Amino acid sequence: MRVVVNGETYYRTAEACRTIGVSRNTLFRWLKEDDLDDAEYRDWRGWRLIPEAQVKRMQLKTSQMLVKRRKPDQAEELRKQGPA
Question: Number of helices and strands (H, E) in the chain?
Answer without folding.
Answer: 4, 4
